Amino acid sequence: MALIDALKWRYATKKMNGQAVPQEKVDYILEAAKLAPSSSGLQPYKIFVITNQELKEKLRAVSFDQSQVTDASHVLVWAAWDGYSLEKISAVFDKTIAERGIPADAMDEYKQRLWGMYEPLGQEWHAHHAAKQAYISFGIAIAAAAEQQVDATPMEGFIPAEVDKLLGLNELGLNSVLVLPLGYRDDANDWLVNLKKVRTAQEEFITEIK
C-alpha cells in the first residue's frame, strides 16, 4: 500500500477487537521507529513493548479507562530521557565512532559544543527536548503501522507519573511521553470507523514562499 493511501486508511482507532498482530509486523513498525531521525543522532528515548495482559489492565486504569489499551495486541510506550548529561552524550558518540571506524577524537569538538549548549538550559528543557525527539519516532511508527494495515491509536491520554511507576521508568532516568496501542479495529463497535477523515484544505494548510 502506498504511504498516502495508507495514511488515508488509518484513523485513531477507538475500539480494537483483541486480534493478535503478527510479530513480523510489530518488528517492522519498531524498526521504522528506531530508524527515525533525532537531534544529533542521540535517540534520547526508549520504546517499551507490552503484551502482558495484567500489565495492560493496570495501564488502562491510569489511561482514563481507554479500552484500546487492553484490547490491543501490543502497547508501545515511548519513554524519553529525563535529562541530558555529558556522559550520556559521550556514550552515544563513542558508539557512533566505533561503528564508523573513525578516530576516537573525531567528534570531541562537536560533543563539547553540544554539551556547552545543553548544560545551561536545565533539566526541564532537557526533558522537553528529549520528548520532542520521541514524537518524531512516534509519528514514523504510526505511518509504518498504517503501511502494514495495523491499527494504531496515538495516545497522550494517560497519567505519566503513574505509567512511570508501573514501568519503573524513574529508576532508569526516563519519563513516559506517548502510548501507542497496536491491533485491529472492531468495525461493529467503533463509532469512528466509518466517519469521513477531515483535514485542513491544502490551500489553507500550505503556504508557499517563493
TrEMBL record:
InterPro entries: Nitroreductase, Nitroreductase-like. Gene3D superfamilies: NADH Oxidase. It comes from the Bacteria. Residues 7-184 form the Nitroreductase domain. Transmembrane segments: none annotated. The keyword Cytoplasm does not apply. Keywords: Flavoprotein, FMN, Oxidoreductase. GO terms for molecular function: oxidoreductase activity. Its cofactor is FMN. Pfam families: Nitroreductase (PF00881). Belongs to the nitroreductase family. This is Nitroreductase.
